[in-house]
């Protein structure tokens, strides 16, 4: 079974609309959770991270994510999408159960229509 | 801080040739990771170093692959006798870990990647 699931391969939203990208992890009592963004041909940029504490975390570029332990989820949200947000978004998990590495989901491609 | 850099950015090679990639991590980071990303997938872990010691290798890292970090600074990843299945983006990341702050090691910063095409 996949450790990290991003159920949506593609999502299209209109510019100015709100966005939610889903992420579920399979296991881990204390997971460390991350969202990265990747523009075409580029490396990954860290958007935000969750280690512990407040379950709603703020990141760069107006993104936020909420950790819900009961649902094993860490969904990424943005209230108003800009055309420059079009990219691929990856959720990743780390922690003791995953060893000394990050385990990534397969990614969600975001398209923004004007 | 110039971030993580990788060279070359693109490499086209013929099957059977050897290739070597270089990664320069963020200067104060003592951990360095290599990941591989194929089309439509997220990055997959290959190996990581703490300082100059290679501490873990994935089973994805066949014996044709070797990685080094001789002085605990930059790292090289060599692929011998390349195969078409090696075509991918090779990503390097770095992080810092010290004392009991293990969780900081997971906050990894990635370079732009080297895209390898084997023809």
How would you characterize this protein structure?
The complex is a heterodimer of chains A (114) and B (119). Chain A has no helices and twelve strands. With 114 residues, chain A is mainly β. In chain A, strands 2, 5, 6, 10, 11 and 12 form a six-stranded mixed sheet that branches. A four-stranded antiparallel sheet of chain A has the order 3-9-8-7, with no helix packed on it. In chain A, strands 1-4 form a two-stranded antiparallel ribbon. With 119 residues, chain B is an all-beta fold. Helix content of chain B is 0%, strand content 47%. Chain B contains no helices and eleven strands. The model of chain B has no long low-confidence stretch (mean pLDDT 93).
Topology diagram in text:
The complex is a heterodimer of chains A (114) and B (119).
Chain A: E1 4-5, E2 10-14, E3 19-21, E4 24-25, E5 32-38, E6 44-50, E7 56-58, E8 64-68, E9 73-78, E10 87-95, E11 99-104, E12 108-113
Parallel strand pairs in A: 2-12
Antiparallel strand pairs in A: 1-4, 3-9, 5-6, 5-10, 7-8, 8-9, 10-11, 10-12
Chain B: E1 5-7, E2 10-13, E3 19-24, E4 31-37, E5 44-50, E6 53-57, E7 65-68, E8 75-79, E9 88-95, E10 109-110, E11 114-118
Parallel strand pairs in B: 2-11
Antiparallel strand pairs in B: 1-3, 3-8, 4-5, 4-9, 5-6, 7-8, 9-10, 9-11
From N to C, what is the helix and strand string of chain B?
A: EEEEEEEEEEE
- How would you characterize the largest beta sheet of chain B? 7 strands, mixed
Distance between the terminal alpha carbons of chain A, to the nearest Å?
37 Å
Largest sheet of chain A: 6 strands, mixed
Coarse structural class of chain B = mainly beta
Query: Beta-sheet strand percentage of chain B?
Result: over 45%
Low-confidence stretches of chain A: none
What share of the residues of chain A does DSSP label as strand, in percent? over 45%
What is the H/E string of chain A? Answer: EEEEEEEEEEEE
Give the C-alpha Rg of chain A: 13 Å
In angstroms, what separates the terminal alpha carbons of chain B? 36 Å
- Please give the number of β-strands of chain B: 11
Low-confidence stretches of chain B: none
């Amino acid at each position: 079974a996949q450790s990290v699931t991003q159920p949506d391969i593609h999502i299209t939203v209109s510019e100015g609309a709100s966005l939610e990208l889903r992420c579920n992890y399979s296991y881990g009592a204390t997971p460390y959770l991350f969202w990265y963004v990747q523009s075409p041909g580029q490396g990954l940029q860290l958007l935000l991270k969750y280690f512990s504490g407040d379950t709603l975390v703020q990141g760069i570029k107006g993104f936020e994510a909420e950790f819900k332990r009961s649902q094993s989820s860490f969904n990424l949200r943005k209230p108003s999408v800009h055309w420059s947000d079009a990219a691929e978004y990856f959720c990743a998990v780390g922690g003791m159960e995953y060893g000394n590495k990050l385990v990534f989901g397969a990614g969600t491609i975001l398209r923004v229509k004007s | 801080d110039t971030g993580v850099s990788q060279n070359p950015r693109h490499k086209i090679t013929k099957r059977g040739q050897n290739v070597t990639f270089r990664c320069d991590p963020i200067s104060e980071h003592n951990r360095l990771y290599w990941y591989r990303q194929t089309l439509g997938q997220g990055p997959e872990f290959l190996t990581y170093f703490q300082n100059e010691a290679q501490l873990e290798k994935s089973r994805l890292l066949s014996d044709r692959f070797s990685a080094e970090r001789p002085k605990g600074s930059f790292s090289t990843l060599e692929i011998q006798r390349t195969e078409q299945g090696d075509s991918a983006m090779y990503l390097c990341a770095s992080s810092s870990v010290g004392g009991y702050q293990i969780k900081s090691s997971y906050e990894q910063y990635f370079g732009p990647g080297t895209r390898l095409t084997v023809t």
